[in-house]
């Protein structure tokens, strides 16, 4: 008798403690599945309190089974929401049928065993399926899902023998103790899984924010912020070491006529040109140099090389550009390129300004020729667009 009392008091304390945890989590995060877990454990607490009144009236047993039936429906609903799956209406119908069956048995005065058999089958299947969902849909990198899934499955199996064994004197204390342990394992495991998943989500968000803080969203290249930090870092290294330092070169690339393309064909086509420009530059510097998008239509390459190496890189960019234009004559891509090499003592900010100035000189030299080819390509593109629209209107 003392074991039964200890098990029952432990189960009541466990259910209210876990319910309080889910209440606090729901107040903080307002997630639907947290609300359903909260309701499930509150109902479990109420049901266990009703079970304590079994000595006064057998009706308390029916209240206990009704609370546990609805509690398990909320447990299942929380699991479906937690894993982002639509819950079939079948579970709601089975819960309603079970509750109606229990009430009908009380009204008709049927035996407790007769009313408990369908109830124990429903509760057992519902709890086992809850565990199955953790095993099937849970994150495989979170190993506690196995503990959670197995605890719920064993708890469900244990619930199915309730209707057959609860009247035996030896079963009540042992059965309650076993059920208490399995329920505790499932609940604590669920909480641990929840916190682990949240920690992983926060870590992923932190990594994404860190990536976005140093990368350009459109092209995936490093952004101006990272480029400027890298310039400062390398400059400090050169001033510290003073010897055995390779010269650092900076290449600036600017897409010609991008505003014209945006105004004529739309920003989507302009974005496509920027993506292609990034791809071309990256193809020239696959394993060396730091490539960054530092402005709307400007790209920069930071690499350790002398002036001769930068000249070859400059030529490689134009060769890659010619190859692209040969394959895409409908809208040729024009890029102005300028470069510069640092001096001693190192001043990469000055090197950057010099490269940028050389790029603008190059842009002025080829502006008329490049602009003419872009305008010609845009005229052809607009003619095709107008022809397509007129053909549709004609149809």
Key descriptive features of the protein:
2 domains, Rhopdopsin 7-helix transmembrane proteins, Alpha-Beta Plaits, 5-stranded mixed sheet, alpha+beta
Topology diagram in text:
Elements: H1 2-29, H2 32-52, H3 59-82, H4 89-108, H5 112-137, H6 144-160, H7 162-165, H8 171-214, E1 222-223, H9 224-241, E2 248-255, H10 258-265, H11 267-284, E3 290-293, E4 298-304, H12 307-327, E5 335-341, H13 348-394
Parallel strand pairs: 1-3
Antiparallel strand pairs: 2-4, 2-5, 3-4
CATH topology grouping of the largest domain: Rhopdopsin 7-helix transmembrane proteins
| Sheet with the most strands, sense and barrel status | 5 strands, mixed
Element order: H for helix, E for strand: HHHHHHHHEHEHHEEHEH
**Could you estimate the helical fraction of the residues in percent?**
over 70%
CA-atom Rg in angstroms: 35 Å
Which segments are poorly predicted (pLDDT under 50) over 5 or more consecutive residues? 386-395
Structural class label: alpha+beta
Number of alpha- plus pi-helical segments: 13
Distance between the termini: 89 Å
Q: Any idea what the shape is?
A: elongated
The chain-level mean pLDDT equals 83
**CATH architectural arrangement of the largest domain:** Up-down Bundle
How many independent structural domains?
2
Which percent range describes the beta-strand content? 5-15%
Determine and state the CATH class of the largest domain: Mainly Alpha
Q: Strand sequence of the main sheet, in spatial order?
A: 1-3-4-2-5
Find the count of extended strands (DSSP E, 2+ residues): 5
């Amino acid at each position: 008798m003392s074991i039964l009392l200890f098990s029952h008091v432990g189960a009541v304390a466990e259910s209210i403690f876990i319910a309080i945890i889910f209440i606090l989590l729901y107040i903080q995060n307002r997630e639907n599945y947290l609300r359903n877990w909260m309701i499930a454990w509150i109902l479990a607490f109420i049901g266990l309190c009703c079970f304590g009144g079994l000595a006064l009236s057998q009706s308390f047993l029916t209240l206990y089974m009704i609370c546990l039936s609805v509690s398990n429906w909320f447990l299942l609903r929380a699991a479906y929401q937690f894993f982002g799956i639509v819950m079939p209406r079948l579970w709601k119908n089975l819960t309603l049928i079970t509750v109606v069956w229990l009430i009908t048995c009380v009204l008709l005065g049927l035996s407790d065993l007769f009313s408990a058999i369908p109830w124990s089958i429903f509760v057992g299947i519902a709890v086992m399926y809850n565990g199955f969902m953790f095993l099937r849909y849970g994150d495989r990198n979170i190993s506690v899902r196995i503990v959670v899934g197995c605890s719920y499955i064993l708890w469900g199996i244990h619930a199915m023998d309730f209707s057959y064994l609860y009247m035996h004197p030896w079963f009540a204390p042992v059965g309650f103790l076993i059920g208490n342990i399995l329920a505790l394992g499932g609940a604590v495991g669920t909480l641990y899984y929840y916190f682990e998943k949240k920690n992983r989500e926060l870590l992923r968000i932190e990594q994404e924010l860190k990536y976005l803080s140093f990368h350009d969203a459109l092209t995936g290249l490093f952004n101006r912020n990272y480029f400027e930090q890298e310039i400062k870092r390398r400059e400090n290294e050169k001033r510290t070491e003073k010897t055995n330092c390779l010269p650092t070169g900076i290449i600036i690339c600017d897409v010609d006529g991008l505003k014209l393309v945006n105004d004529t064909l739309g920003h989507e086509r302009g974005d496509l040109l920027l993506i292609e420009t990034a791809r071309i530059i990256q193809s020239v510097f696959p394993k060396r140099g730091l490539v960054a998008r530092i402005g709307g239509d400007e790209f920069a390459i930071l690499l350790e090389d002398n002036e001769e190496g930068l000249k070859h890189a400059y030529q490689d960019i134009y060769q890659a550009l010619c190859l692209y234009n040969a394959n895409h004559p409908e809208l040729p891509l024009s890029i102005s390129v300028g470069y510069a090499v640092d001096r001693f003592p190192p001043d990469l900010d000055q090197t950057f300004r010099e490269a940028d100035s050389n790029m603008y000189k190059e842009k002025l030299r080829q502006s008329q020729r490049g602009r003419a080819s872009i305008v010609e390509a845009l005229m052809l593109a607009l003619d095709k667009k107008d022809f397509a629209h007129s053909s549709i209107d004609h149809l």
